[in-house]
TrEMBL record:
The keyword Nucleotide-binding applies. InterPro entries: AAA+_ATPase, ATPase_AAA_core, Cdc6_lid, ORC1/CDC6, Orc1/Cdc6_arc, P-loop_NTPase, WH-like_DNA-bd_sf. Involved in regulation of DNA replication. One of its GO terms (biological process) is cell division. SMART domains: AAA (SM00382). The lineage of its organism: Archaea, Methanobacteriati, Methanobacteriota, Stenosarchaea group, Halobacteria. It comes from Halogranum amylolyticum. This is ORC1-type DNA replication protein.
Length: 462
């Protein structure tokens, strides 16, 4: 193994100061990296069994549930529940991968696909992705997403599994986040319909082959309470619980990935320090690994040869921001509109917010944010949902830690009001993120003076 960071030598440059070099010289000059195998700490890598630390109990449970598939029996569905980054997807993916390999030797045809509820806006999109991934894995012709009904997407999925597999394993990650957009109070969320249709297909013998559903969630109550009665009677998973990691466990997990870096590039206390920072938060292994990778990226950008605790400290802000941006980019459009309304109140109302006795320059009062929501939906001719929905979506964004939701008094018994605080990501960065995501947000800012005066007038009257 090479020691220390990798250095690729310049072809023809002997200058030291990169500011004096031509573009060609700079591009072909020395390249430093602290990473030997960065894949090991990339977000979606499913690592080998020998890198999984602990989790024996959960592994055994999942193995015992999947095992019948290798003997021609139908495995039960599973609900893996626990906080973010506690290994639910890793355990599901690793056991499914191993089972498929063993199945190949025993002539049991299995495949698994994974879809994340956070990244899907509707039932149709989710079922399309599952179908599409099975088509890809099995080398079938890819069918189109558009111009077909959701029910024909299901039919195609059932047909593929029936014709080509004995068992199709479907991992539905963070499924409680797939609520869909067109929900009124009496309508079940999208995830309820998905679970109903997938679990019912096997019950009524729609296929000779079958599915096993592995659902992961951070919020089992939202998921199970969101099922309508017909789904609740068909989807009866075996539950497996995952708890937060402590600093010692996180340290072990990181040590099992330290060969992502060249030897001696991680200064001695970097792994314990990173584990301690992650344990102080949520005990989330993803956060710990992301922190280590981002610390390495910072060292690389500065052309430094070692990763230190200072890099980890700096990485913390960046990783937290990335998480918030990721949530904002992936929530439904109505939630994005709700957030946009609150963020513009903060961005364009700075002067009044900082002058006020009971508001702050990092916040937006909920009544004004809601008025801006109404203004924006009129301006862009977008469906406007009830105030109740607006407040619920904002509370939900609070639980994802995109904003903080508070109740605040005006003083002198003049009543209380809801307040949104931009704690992890400044409001103007949120506005920029949304503007990049959808032109309707950009168009609203084309006339900045107009939006500024709408915000100011409403804050004045508040
Ligand atoms: N016990 C463990 N050993 C080694 N790596 C782990 C362990 N637990 C989690 N990880 C790593 O932490 C990261 C997050 O894990 P994973 O995606 O499985 O979490 P999750 O519980 O499914 O989270 P979420 O609920 O947010 O989807 C992954 O990179 C995974 O490889």
């Amino acid at each position: 193994m090479r020691s220390n960071s990798c250095i690729i030598m310049a072809e023809d440059s002997d200058h030291q100061d990169s500011s004096q070099l031509s573009i060609t010289e700079q591009l072909s000059s020395e390249y430093h990296t602290v990473f030997k195998d960065k894949d090991l700490i990339e977000p979606d890598t499913i690592v080998d069994e020998d890198r999984i630390v602990g989790r024996d109990e959960q592994l055994n449970k999942v193995i015992n549930i999947v095992k019948p598939a290798l003997h021609g029996d139908q495995p039960e569905d599973m609900l893996l529940r626990g906080p973010s980054g506690t290994g639910k997807t890793l355990i599901a993916g690793t056991v499914a991968t191993k089972a498929i390999k063993i199945g190949q030797k025993r002539d049991v045809k299995m495949e698994f696909v994974e879809v994340n509820g956070k990244h899907k806006k509707s039932e149709h999109e989710a079922i399309h992705q599952i179908t599409h991934e099975f088509e890809q894995l099995l080398g079938l012709e890819l069918t189109s997403k558009t111009g077909v009904s959701t029910s024909s997407r299901y039919d195609r999925l059932f047909e593929i599994v029936d014709e080509h597999l004995d068992i199709g394993i479907v991992i539905l990650d963070e499924l409680d986040l797939l609520v869909g957009d067109s929900r009124n109070k009496n309508e079940a969320p999208a995830f309820s319909d998905i679970l109903y249709k997938l679990s019912r297909a096997k019950r009524i013998g729609k296929m000779d082959s079958s599915f096993t559903l592995i659902v992961t969630t951070n919020s089992p109550n939202s998921l199970m309470n969101g099922l309508n009665s017909r789904t609740a009677s068909t989807f009866n998973p075996t539950e497996v619980a995952f708890a937060d990691y402590n600093a010692t466990e996180l340290r072990e997990i990181l040590k099992h990935r330290q060969d992502a870096f060249y030897e001696d590039t991680l200064v001695d206390d970097v792994i314990p320090y990173t584990a301690a920072v992650a344990a102080q938060g949520e005990g989330d292994a993803r956060f710990a690994i992301d922190l280590l990778r981002e610390a390495g990226n910072i060292a690389n950008r500065r052309e430094e040869r070692t990763v230190t605790t200072n890099h980890v400290e700096e990485a913390k802000n960046q990783v937290e921001k990335n998480y918030v941006v990721d949530v904002i980019e992936n929530v439904s459009f109505q939630k994005q509109v709700s957030l946009f309304a609150a963020a513009v109140v903060n961005k364009y109302g700075q002067e009044q917010l900082s002058r006020s006795e009971f508001l702050s320059d990092r916040s937006a009062p909920a009544p004004v944010a809601h008025t801006l929501y109404k203004w924006f939906t009129d301006y862009q001719n977008i469906e406007r949902r009830s105030k109740h929905s607006y407040l619920r979506w904002m509370r939900e964004l609070g639980t994802y830690e995109v904003i903080e939701v508070n109740r605040k008094g005006r003083g002198n018994e003049r009543g209380v009001f809801g307040e949104y605080i931009f704690h992890n990501l400044p409001a103007d960065v949120m506005v920029e993120t949304l503007v990049d995501k959808d032109d309707r947000f950009r168009e609203a800012l084309d006339d900045e003076e107009l939006i500024r005066s709408v915000v100011r007038n409403n804050l004045k009257d508040f």
